[in-house]
């Protein structure tokens, strides 16, 4: 990096004053400042983009490792499930022969689910808000302070 001290900056300023002139020096200095600011912002944007791409690559690698681990777990579960089903079939094959007529009780389907038709948050007998609004009924409850403020007599001037 360029080592700029106070003495070197003073020397550059003096040369710029002589070469550019005192009339154009403030405008040139402002232009140089804006260009330097734009360059710094561009460099910071590039650094941020590079860091984002690096993080994205790391996340992709992590995703691949998690997916491969999930596939391994799924494969092992399938193998264990197949082994379990074999052993279950072997165990139940001998048991179902010895049950006789009672084997049909194990094969009955479970009772069908019935919804209780209860919604504790909603009362079935309430009037709908559109009907209340149409008939001019109160649709919202007011607190005591709000009711006093609403129905307080207005002061005459």
Notes on the protein architecture:
The protein is mainly α and 157 residues long. It has a domain at 7-86. It has five helices and no strands. The longest helix is centred in the middle third of the chain and has 75 residues, at 25-99. The protein is flat and about 105 Å long.
Number of strands: 0
What share of residues are in beta strands? under 5%
Low-confidence stretches: none
**What is the straight-line distance between the termini?**
77 Å
What is the count of helical runs?
Answer: 5
Q: Radius of gyration in whole Å, from Cα?
A: 41 Å
**Global structural class:** mainly alpha
Q: In one word, what is the shape?
A: flat
Oligomer: single chain
Report the sheet with the most strands, covering strand number, pairing sense and barrel closure.
none
**Mean model confidence by pLDDT:** 82
Helix proportion range? 55-70%
| H-E order | HHHHH
InterPro entries: TatA/B/E, TatB
Family: Belongs to the TatB family.
GO molecular function, one term: protein transmembrane transporter activity
Organism: Rhodoferax antarcticus ANT.BR
